Amino acid sequence: MGQTRGDYIGCYLLGTETPGQHDASYHSLATTRAALIDDARAFLQGFLDAHPGLPESERAQLQSLLDHLEARIDAHLAGDTKKPLAVQGGTHLFLRPGMRARKKEQGRYLE
User: Fold this and answer.
1) For the chain, how big is the Rg over CA atoms in Å?
2) Is 76:87 a contact under the CB 8 Å cutoff?
3) Is residue 36 helix, strand or coil?
4) What is the DSSP letter of 37?
5) How far apart are CA 14 and CA 41, in angstroms?
6) Largest Cα–Cα distance in the chain?
7) Contact, 110 vs 17, CB < 8 A?
């Protein structure tokens, strides 16, 4: 991650998607593992806080992911990243390597 290729930079794509629909929502485009961990932690905790009525089994699964986040991310990235990191209801939380446009200001890259 973080390797550049012209106007693009390697990153971790963390987001949610619903199978059968074409809209993915990205929650992190981090270029470092540390930034990915921070973004994932903030997203998961925010989701749990915003949905107090989640069924206990789903809440427990997400809390377990949050409690063991670094190990789960490492295992996921070492395996098949086409599979979801987690599933909540019909929505998949995905994590996979990808590329994004580099940030540029006044003709200079910020990264």
Assistant:
1) 15
2) no
3) helix
4) H
5) 11
6) 50
7) no
pLDDT at 43: 92
Using 50 as the pLDDT threshold, list the residues of the chain that sit under it. none
pLDDT for 1 equals: 67
Encoded amino acid at 81, one letter? T
Identity of residue 83: K
Residue 109, SS3 per DSSP: strand
pTM as predicted: 0.82
Q: What is the DSSP string of 38-57?
A: HHHHHHHHHHHHH-TTS-HH
Residue with tokens 């089994």: 57
Query: DSSP for 48-88?
Result: HHH-TTS-HHHHHHHHHHHHTHHHHHHHHHHS-TTS-SEEE
Q: How many CA atoms lie within 13 A of 70 on its CB side?
A: 5
